[in-house]
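quick one, 172 residues, struct below
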Amino acid sequence: MAAMLILAAAVAGAAVAAPDPVAPAWRGEMQCYGPDIARRTCNALGSYARNADGGIDNTAIVLVSPSPPVTMTTVTRVVIKAGQVCGQVREQDIDAARFAMGGQLLDAVHSEALRREMKAGMQTIAGHEICTAYVPDGDLLAATVTVDGVARPELDDKVVWIAPAAGYKVAP
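---
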């Protein structure tokens, strides 16, 4: 469930008019969801890149299992809308996901089993517009999520922007 929440928040991504919610990404920073500052770990890492057609891709590395530590990496198209990052969890994004355990990519058999689990767990949000607003909350940001315009506080999380050289990793 935590992986679904983090992916939903990460997938919800890019803005217009109001301050650009992903402006630090254009300076090379990444979003750390559920940060443990002392251990330099995150439940998920998100980065943004402009693609050839001018759109924005959000790459999310999400912890889907703490023990053993398994991550899923997805790339999702997002837009910036009214100061929020918005996108959809699409079946093809999960189909293209890469799964790793302890930093090693999993083989096709194990990846397919995890892919089926992720699709089943995300049925309630797949294909719906997920938007995330980032609101200052002390030294962090509060990522507040809506699905089709309806607040989903169970998907909210804390986020901090980090430099890649800061040494953060996705880990339990």
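The chain has one domain: 2-162.
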